[in-house]
Every structure is written in C-alpha cells, then in structure tokens.
Amino acid sequence: MRLTIGMRCRMKPKAAEAHSWAGYAGNDVLLEERSQGEFSVIVLGQKELKKRDPKTVINQFAWVNEEDLEFINADFETNLNFIDWYQERKEDFCPDCGAWFPKQGGVDPETGEECVCPRKKCLGRLYDSGICPYCETPAPEDGDICPKCEFNWQTQS
Question: φ and ψ at 12, to 5 degrees?
Fold first, then answer.
C-alpha cells in the first residue's frame, strides 16, 4: 500500500536508529505533506486525537521516508480534520516541542511570571531552566559545553 497525506502511521523503530528522529521511533504520526516519497509529519504522544491537549502533539518535522513508516489507519475524516485544526492554530502550539500552549508569551496571573510550556520535556523549557535540552544535565558552571553530551550553550542563545 502506498502512503498518502492524511494517513496515520507509526515510525518503525529499526529504521529510526540512523535518523535524527530516533527518539520518536514507535510513535504514531499523521502524514501532513508529501515530497518525493518523504513526509512531513505531526508526531503524536497518545492514541486519541484530543484537541487542546499538550500530550497529543509532541513534535513536528520533515522529512521521513515512506519506507520508515508503518501504516496504522486511513481514517481520513478524523485525521484530516485534526490536521486542518492543527494548521489553523499553529501559533497556539509551543514552537520548541509542538505541545498545545495557547498561553505562550503570556504571564501567569498567580505568579506574575512568564508562562512556561506545559510539557516537562520541552527542549525550550529545559534550556530556559538551565538544563541541557538533550541529556538533561544542569548547565556547566564553567564554560559553555555540556560535560555529558557536548551541547554548546553559547551557540544556542
């Protein structure tokens, strides 16, 4: 079966090892755009497509080869309705991790501080908290290089 936009698939774990998206192997995705046998995908964190839930969309990226995807369903009505809803509200999602975050840039009335992404593993939230977004090691006190994974804090600011 040839895959197309609007299908739900799963990223094959064995295929993921050589890709930047290896951390999402086994996750379901919605196929959003196609280009020469590869897809931009919306990575899902749960089975149900719940709108306004920070656990539904956990990332979005391109390009995943068709051979690295396993077909799950062709429930086009449900899948395309969610994709359309998502695309119309992209500004309400965290730019760092894709979680539902309509309060982005706002201030928490209880604390008076800027609102933070609701997803605890959000790369931007970790970075802003002084924690390496890749290995979750506290930022080094001396220098700019993470001692565990060699992430360069200086080039990211």
Answer: -65, 125
| Strand spans (E) along the chain | 8-11, 28-35, 38-44, 57-65, 69-73
Rounded to whole angstroms, how far apart are CA atoms 153 and 149? 11
Give the global pTM.
Answer: 0.76
**How is 77-119 classified by DSSP, letter by letter?**
HHHHHHHHHHHHTGGGB-TTT--B-TTTT-B-TTT-SBP--S-
Q: What percent of the chain has pLDDT over 90?
A: 41
Amino acid occupying residue 11:
M
**Dihedral (C-alpha) 92, 96, 117, 50: value to the nearest 10 degrees?**
50
Q: What local confidence, expressed as pLDDT, does residue 156 receive?
A: 61
What are the pLDDT digits (tens) for 74-90?
A: 999 999 999 999 999 98
Residue 148 tokens read as 């565990």
Question: Quick check: helix, strand or coil at residue 124?
Answer: helix
Each domain of the chain, given as residue ranges in start order, spans 8-92, 120-157
